[in-house]
Amino acid sequence: MTGAITTRALALLFWVTAAVIYLPIGVMAVFSFSTARYQILPIPAYTTEWYGRVFTDGQYSAGFFNSVLLAGSVSLAATLIGFACAYSLVNARFPGKTAFTMLVLAPLAVPLLLVGIALRIWTTMLGLQPSLPLAGVGQVLYVLPLAVLNLRNRIAQLPKSHEEAAWALGASRLRAIIDVILPACRASLIATFILCFTFAFDEFVIAYFLTNFSVTLPIKIWTTLVTGFDPTINALGTMVFAFSLILGVTAQWLLLRKDR
Amino acid sequence: MRAKSVTLRGVSKSFGTVQAVHPQDLTVQAGEFLTLLGPSGCGKTTVLRMIAGLEAVSGGTILVGDEDVTSYPPNRRDTSIMFQDYALFPHKTVRDNIAYGLKMRGQSAPDRARAAEGWLARIGLSGYGDRLPAALSGGQRQRVALARALILEPGVLLLDEPLGALDAGLRRQLQIELRRLHRDVGLTFIAVTHDQEEAMTMSDRIAVMRDGRIEQLGTPQEIYDSPQTEFVARFLGRCSVIEGRVLSAAGGVVQVETAALGMVSAKGDAAPGATLRLALRPEALLLDPASPAKARVVDAVFTGNAVRLALVASDGTALELDLPRGTQVPAAGSETGLCVPPGSAILLLS
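^ Those are the sequences you sent over. The predicted structure of the assembly is below.
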């Protein structure tokens, strides 16, 4: 009997948690279809006007374009560097390997605000102008631990003999990685790319500190909120949420499905 | 002929403080089928991996043919290796798996496809070229792995537990097939196994390994008939071990006085007065009611082609004896006489 009660209590806890997380977003989604300029109930009438405005307002589309470009390049770079890191962490034996691992994974534990400030100070000292590419470098640092963790797990699962067989058949080290390791990691690589993309796409702090004029979507949303509320934000937020959710679920599905 | 010899000179391997292989000399003749036989952890696989270049040596030199390959990476050695798990590339078709080595040599796609088809036919898998390895049975995978390793006609083929992943019936059949294949291709084969029957069936010579050392090297018959140590005697087949004192030695025959079976003669040489041990294969002991050497029957087990008797000698030594079928089986608990025909006892050096 206690077992059944515990199970029900856990189920209840799950739904409460899910509600706490998703209800505000649901509220935002509902108001994004309201004709009213402010979030008031009851909703006077329904409209898709705000969604239209997201696309017609040049500032939003510019921000969206910048964000996709930035997140795309950041994830591509992080996936490639992350793969190299993960491969060497699994295969290489060198002094200070543990310390190196900690160093690669550390950005996960450091408050993002500090990372942002530190990057800004450091790049200023180096005489670099804040720009989109510079923000990209900063964001690679931020998502790299995710890429390394994901890919390291996958590479560690692979039987060593496959790579050794390729060597014995005449393949160089690099050739064996391309022919044997990369294909076996295909789903994990795609999942890693998507995961990094969702994190980089939503990232605000580093982008805020390291860009000047070419703003990303999160920065645009932030400045709009600060200068006065615009219902377009509701529509935009709902779309970004749906977009991120689809990507995130796809990434998880790819990771769980496992590579063939 | 493509076959190459393999020479190990003082080759050793240590992992940290563990000495996996003690400094070792070994010469494998070109075209020979040599098996490294031993229990798990005896260092046999490490020796194989050092020859393949997958493991660096801690000391010594390795020659393939006349070439010192000690510092060469695997892809520069004239060796191929087949792994216990076959290590077929799961995302490549059977044909691409077999042709992979040729691709690495820079052969054109049509040439590779033709060579792969040839091997598919040879291993009886024509028409399977487009399948993925996952769609094959264990035995089929094993043959694809062999074809993939042999298509390069390496001077030396290394086999790590080549039949280890298969069930008993298939193993026996493939032992014969491997032996035939070795004769057909005429290459040097070096295999690793822990299965003594497999080693005996397939090999020209066997190196029995124990704790990182080769304990004895010889043809299957030499190893079975004249094991030098109790370990080798027990690892290859069943045997009883009895102790005794040398009375006399002359003309390559020693007379040994044993507590268990009285006077026993064995081939070999030893100093009179020395204490030593003798190994007796189950077929080397005969029932002889007239013999003064008595033993009590403990158990009788039917093994198919014989009845195996477990006995205890008067001094307490455990003995085993194979009775041919059709012989009267003495009852458990009864006493019987035993004799050892001259020359059938084996003198152990340690």
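The CA atoms of residues 71 and 200 of chain A lie 5 Å apart. The mean pLDDT of chain A is 85.

Shout if you want it in another format.
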